[in-house]
User: Fold these one by one.
Assistant:
Number 1:
Amino acid sequence: MTVESSPRLPAARPRDPDDLRDYLPGVEPERQVTDWGRSERVEGALDATVSEFLYRYWFRVEVEGIENVPDAGGALLVSNHSGALPPDAPMIAKAIKEEHARPRPVHLTMEHFFKGYPLFSMLLPKVGGVPAHPANVHRLLFDEDQLVLVFPEGRKGSEKLYKDRYRLRRFGRGGFVESAMKAGRPIVPIAVVGAEEAAPIFAHLTVLQRLTGLLYVPLTPTFPHGGILGMFGYLPAKLRIRFLEPISTTQWGEEPWKDRALVQTVAEDIRGLIQEELYGMLAKRRSIWFG
Amino acid sequence: MISRRILVTGLSTYWGGRVAQALERERAVEAIVGVDVHDPTVELERTEYVRVGHQHALLRRIVQAAEIDTVVDTRLVVDSTTTPSRLAHENNVIGTMNILAACSGPESPVRKFVFKSSGHWYGCEQDDPAYFTEAMERPHPPRTPIEKDIVEAERAVHAYADATPRATVTVLRFCNGLGPTIATAHTRLFALPAVPAVFGFDPRYQFVHEDDIVGCLEFAVRNDLPGLYNCAGDGVLVLSEVVDLLGKPLLPILPPWGTSIATGLAGRLGIRIPPEMLQQLRFGRGLDNRRLKAAGYTYRYTTREAVQAHAEALRLRPLLRGGDAPYRYEREVEEFLRRSPTVRKRPEPRWAQEAEADVDALDGLDAAALIALLPSLPRPELEALGRHEAGNARRPEVLAAIGRNLARSRP
């Protein structure tokens, strides 16, 4: 009746006692929501309408180097971040869905703030948001072999003003490198051009920010005077996403994450790599709107 | 270590009673002693009930006199709607301390201590990981009285484990329980015509079926599992999914700001939402259950199946109302049944007799048909059949197949 349909009895005990991948819960096909709270229905509906429109007609996204995203196994996607309500995250996820030979879901790490704010807390996990906790990233990368997208700049990236566009902020404390090293999964750097112009921020409205308790309330071309809908008032900039060559994290020997200097250096190198790539792409860009 | 003489604390609680019932079926167990201040609430066949609080001197005398080798501590209160917080503190913290004191000392016969703890130990906060593992520390200090109690009680158990290397100490942290007969703050919420929720939140929820709670405790008694183990069904649902499985509407009427004021008002109307649940309704919680699975336990129900089982029971409840008279403990009757020479002792416990009867029904089958049938038999029947076949010793291939099936159906 309710006996587990496929009792997993691994032939041999895992060598490492911390490696419990054999004991992950099975998939229940009747469910439409994953254990992370991701909803097929909500995601599918959004993907077929808003994402599709933005991807094809509004941003006319162009993708390069999609083959750098591995077909199988976990990988940490690392990208620059911008825009009041950043359009880069959903467009990267959509790019992998549309262009990749074997489309895979992307799990997007988000600030813990969103888990505590009504509506965001309900909606973001439904479309693939996962709180940016190292344990979550480790489980997704190592145990579940999923794609995880991180923005090491975090809110420092998305709240920066238009005048600072394409100048990468500090890459956190290198936590993303540490996570990838611990999981032994590659890092795929991504450079996104166009998102800065699509959702520029001219100033921050600190009074409104205090009143609403949000992370920040920006002044954009359409917000706040456009109301809630104004938050989605993207300008039709041409978006170009370039996936760079994967960086293996197993090349530094045993337990490289214990070497703090190495972690910082690798994080800084990846930041430099993306920054250089951005300058290269911007130098070749003729028009903000047509690419 | 094989447990033969077991003390169950909190016998009159739901869990104490059910664990004692489960252990009674175990042939290797010679004696089960249950202690509590209230009378047992379920029918017990051979468990000896002793009415005693948690005075450690008295408990110690019981432990010594009965040569208790295993203590199963099921007493912890994890739901502040059932017990006033002062009593809960007395039971959870002082009680645990006293029971541990009764089991310590160089001449104590106790070799195993199984402690029923709760996932509330981890708390429930905005920046929690999606899955708590046993290796994780509690990220924030406890917020509610119940959580404080649980943290403090566990600290005492860990100290006991450190000081008593000869004893195997198992701490089981259970997520929220659910099932046909269990009653918690959550089941009371799910019994309402519409399930209230906090507006703008859809928390992740994990449940463990009541049979699995008993199963985990029994598993810890049968096997040596030193350390911490999370107990939770496979799969994490979101609240909207849970409510959908229950077939009820979700009512997001609790405001995201000032929620505790609203639940205070709801409490006046008879809908009690305890503070430890409030955090769960907002942020949810998931436990990583893989360590216990790796130790060999197989969960009988996933979270989803536990919710479905509860939903089925909810639908039947109005039809079954007033059916069975609840069990009432009468000391004289129990004494008579256990001690009087007039009572005819059954040669075998009831379940074994039933299994024996079934074995006779199976006897007519030929070897091949019998072997094909074996995987569908529950463990007690397999054991009974094994004894039967071994007694007749006619068909070695059947005996070998029974052995294989027994090895596969881990208890």
Number 2:
Amino acid sequence: MRDVAGLRLTFHLAGINNQNFLMRDEQTGSFWQQISGLAVSGPLKGQQLTLVLSDELTLATWKAEQPQGTILDDIPKYAKQYAKKDWDVRMKKVATVIDFPERGMKARDLMLGVRAFGVSRAYSYEQVIKEKLIADRVGGEPVILVVGMDGESVRMFRNRAPDVEGVSDFYRLDTNHAAALMMDSKTGSEWNFQGCAVSGKAQGVCLQQIPVLKDYWFDWRNYNPKTTIFEAKK
Amino acid sequence: MRLTIRILLISLAVSLFCVLYPIYVIRPFRAQGVRELQVALAVSQYRPVITLISACVALLALAGYWQLRESPRRRIIASAGAVLAVALAVMARVNVYELMFHPIEHSSFTAASQTKLEKDEKVIAVLVNGEARAYPIRSMSYHHLINDTVGSRAIVATY
């Protein structure tokens, strides 16, 4: 959201801070950190932009979910300079200026980062894609991470359904049926990638989505120094 | 050294610092310390005014120097200094990042069913007040941000 402190701000790209962009608003000239939405300098220093829940999806998944949606057009003048599809993989070759070589992590490892329930936690993107469904706890809260039918898009949900007592075990269905990709043990319902039960006792119930950010390890760790890392149970 | 030349040199030095220090600190592929970043951003904040004053002072100093009837060579060097101070005042108003990554000035949108992009292109998707919008990563990783209005809420999408 770009309404803050009674102002509607217009942003410009204005700098870089350890390879995370800085934005500047036209109205006050304040500088804002891209990853956090926090004003780090200028008259609005300390103000925080409200995060809008967003998903990183393949076009196919998004179109299936939002047939009424609209998509930003290329700006023809610059289209030749646009990135190839595997931009984030190509960027892995680019050197970083900071590094946190702890816990076996490499600077450009792709992570899914979550800040919720008072803590920050990171998951290896590669591992999530491989496992397709991960049940975990974030700050004591049960959550699930699930990979979409396209094998690339990932969402996190709070594993507490309204009107369903306690925590349910979720299983990834081995199906190419786009309407349902997981099932839970407690109600035997089938759930789709939007976190909503499409059949069974829980039909119509939707799980609360929790925002996750796909980011490189060095950037995630820089802004979340206390982050924990998910490790698969052996 | 003449007083007017000293004043000219000082204003030129101030302008040079205002323009070059933020470029030096906030350049890509360099680690930014917390303190130096704060200073560089504060300099960026005030430099349009500082370099303007400094250019005016440099021009006044040049006018003063001109009256002293020094040799033509010295006059030319002093004039070049004042011109540089003016040029720096202009440069202080240029956003280098928008020269590197051109901003989206006029955005247009296509219905999901009409888009010609391939289905495995990645998008950043939002749903605000029931209105769904997607921003392809192919263009967002170039422009890096867009000021938009979705579901009648003003948002900025950034990648």
